Amino acid sequence: MVDVLVIGGGNAALCAALMAREAGASVLVVEASPREWRGGNSQHTRNLRCMHDAPQDVLIDAYPEEEYWQDLLKVTGGITDEHLARLTIRASSTCRDWMRRHGVHFQPPLSGALHVARTNAFFMGGGKALVNAYFRSAEKLGVQVRYDTPVVSVELDGDRFVAVRTTKGERIEAKSCVLAAGGFESNREWLREAWGQNERGEWPSDNFLIRGTRFNEGMLLKHMIDAGADSIGDPTQAHMVAIDARAPLYDGGICTRIDCVSLGVVVNREGQRFYDEGEDFWPKCYAIWGRLVAQQPGQIGYSIIDQKAIGRFMPPVFPGTTANTLAELARKLGLPEQAFVKTVEDYNAACRPGSFDHTALDDCATSGLAPAKTHWARPINTAPFYGYTLKPGVTFTYLGLKVNDRAAVHFGGRPSPNLFVAGEMMAGNVLGKGYTAGVGMAIGTAFGRIAGTQAAAAARKVEHATA
Amino acid sequence: MQQLEALTREASALAGGGYPVIPILSANEAEVGRQMQICNACRYCEGFCAVFPAMTRRLEFGKADIHYLANLCHSCGACLHACQYAPPHEFAVNVPQAMARVRIDTYAEYAWPGALGSLYKRNGLTLVLATALALVLFLVLTMAARGTLFPGPLAGNFYAIFPHNMLALMFGVVFGFAVLALGIGVARFWREVSPASETGRSQEPSLRRDATVEVVTDVLRLKYLDGGHGEGCNNADDRFTLWRRRFHHFTFYGFMLCFAATSVATLYHYLLDLHAPYPLTSLPVILGTSGGIGLVIGPVGLLWLNLRRDPAHGDLAQRPMDRGFIALLLLISLTGLALLVWRDTGAMALLLAIHLGVVMALFLTLPYGKFAHGIFRSAALLKNAIEKRQPNRLQLGSE
């Protein structure tokens, strides 16, 4: 019987497996996906939000604990556990050398990400390179890995872990276990159930695209909640970005983003604006647009820019719809022509002269318009005009299992002695809503490492108890 | 469909006159364009090599950009293993493979004389014919000179079989042609990928000097096989290895030492009136021997790596060309070393004929085979070194 069983194959799972193995435990990793899709959502990630008090390797200036905590407090609107959040923040300042030892390479942020040079450390090659490095290191250290092995249920003896059962009916025993199998964002039925039906009679989640892995079905999460594990979080809360409507249903990842929102206007299916596109820098507010679009009729939005914006935002993966007049653009996008043209003309008329600077919070704002556009408001009047259709893109869900600072799964408020949870399955403890770049990997790394250490220790205790 | 539209536009432009002709992309080029559009929206690979930073200076990818980027790619494989959009993802991004397919098209397209560009497409046949013909030539010449392939021990005196001037003329002409053909080919490539306004003619001489120094060091160090992090490139899987770089170095410097040996020998011959055979401790023999050893280790290593290479890397259809070239280099070094060992025996004439035959085959195919990759890549690196010293006209925004 293996000491530590790790369920999942993403960042948190691998951090747990490596830590448990380093602590001397024998470790088996079971990953739901086939080898070529391994890594869960981590393969789509790019960086780690890191606390640091002075410039450190790839990080510039300082990003002290308090500022990190305030950023987290702001995006979550207070729906976070301060103790666990601060633990995550502190862990983010010390984990990079350990990551490097396991083959992860960091690089200075380059052209597309200069704005996060201070707060985020970038993985060279992105998250899939990180996952590859961790798998290589794990295999080198003798961690066993089994792909194509989804787990459906956990056998418990009270609050003690005994074994798991796979979809093929196989029973795998271990002395302790780390659950790190991700959220439920690729489970369409569960999303439908969570989001329900809106006042227009629509099932909003039917129009969601999944930016992340297709393997996060949430089977294990559901099973654990049904088995009495304490849960935390709202099932509709998730990392949601407005992405190109033509993105693939799963695994669209980073490249499906539309970065021109703050340079133009966004209208809904009725041709009406619905939010301040210039609220803040795009990297700071992009994660709110998925929900904004999800609340619109048909869960669809249209980002509209003109020629002046070209060359000032990250190139989109798919070409935009172009037209020489606003009316033509409305027709091509299937928007009500009059309403759309009026929206844009009203907006144009409300733009006050200012000095446009898309690299600063400039003074180009609208006046007397609702909703206002508070920065980068310039009339959309230079052909050709471009339109990008937006849909909500879910990266990962926040509903998860409640944990303490030992990453233990709780049953009726009591921590399990040998069952731990890390990654998306517990991220909701820290991240009740909202998002800020790189914090998912920070949580996964911090709690993955804790869970692995704890699981190894728990396995040793079992040994002593039975010896 | 896009190609059809471009075709239509070009046809009407030709008919009407006065309109700029839009270069039509081949299927291979269009595929690189498609993948670069995806990469440019992702950019996770920026740290690996020069291709991705160069890509970020563009929003769209025309023929010239595609040719340039394809030759800037060192086919190291790092971006493929790190790619979230690699097959089986429906975006099917495999940059090393797409670039490799365009790369060989560029060698053929810019080849001089143009008609011989097709030799790249049938490189296996080209190598076989060149080698067979060159071997036959030297065996026949040996027979013609001595009436036998085994004229007995000649104390290492090659010129007892082939007069020095005859060899100098034969190899001089063929090598001169190879240099000319490659030079014209790469000049054509350079003209297309670097419009006059962008090659930095208006640049400060110091910047141009910096760029040149950078390119020479990058080429000599083979920087872009370091993986961007110094641990090397990929070969069999997602593990990094420095061995591809090392074996390339053995091959390259082995080749250069052999070349130096020949050059020094030529100087000895004409300037110092010192004639071959040279003693084992002489400079030409030391250079040639060490070069020959390098040219054994390098190609053997490259072949070994090539046989183990992940089939997703590069273009499988080009493996015969790659391996053919490696094998030819190996034959040259092995026959050269054999000649050195047995130059005082009766086998010398035969060994010499074989060695000269394979060297001639290499010279004949130099401008129409794998050798070109080094020249085209160096030109692409030079463009890159110049380009990155110029201001980026895009302002994609940052905080």
UniProtKB/TrEMBL annotation, chain A:
Superkingdom of this protein's organism: Bacteria
Domain FAD-dependent oxidoreductase 2 FAD-binding: from-to ranges: 3-430
The keyword Flavoprotein belongs to this UniProt entry's keyword annotation: yes
Record Gene3D superfamilies: FAD/NAD(P)-binding domain, Succinate dehydrogenase/fumarate reductase flavoprotein, catalytic domain
Keyword check for Membrane: no
Known cofactor(s): FAD
GO molecular function list: oxidoreductase activity
Pfam families, per database record: FAD_binding_2 (PF00890)
Keywords for the protein's UniProt record, in alphabetical order: FAD, Flavoprotein, Oxidoreductase
Annotated signal sequence range: none
Stated name of the protein: FAD-dependent tricarballylate dehydrogenase TcuA
Name of the coding gene: tcuA
UniProtKB/TrEMBL annotation, chain B:
Biological classification of the source: Bacteria, Pseudomonadati, Pseudomonadota, Betaproteobacteria, Burkholderiales
Superkingdom of this protein's organism: Bacteria
UniProt source species: Rhodoferax sediminis
Name of this protein: Tricarballylate utilization 4Fe-4S protein TcuB
Transmembrane portions of the chain: 125-146, 166-187, 250-271, 283-305, 325-342, 348-368
SUPFAM superfamilies cross-referenced by the UniProt entry: 4Fe-4S ferredoxins, Respiratory nitrate reductase 1 gamma chain
Keywords: Membrane, Transmembrane, Transmembrane helix
Gene: tcuB
InterPro entries: Citrate_utilization_prot_B, NarG-like_sf
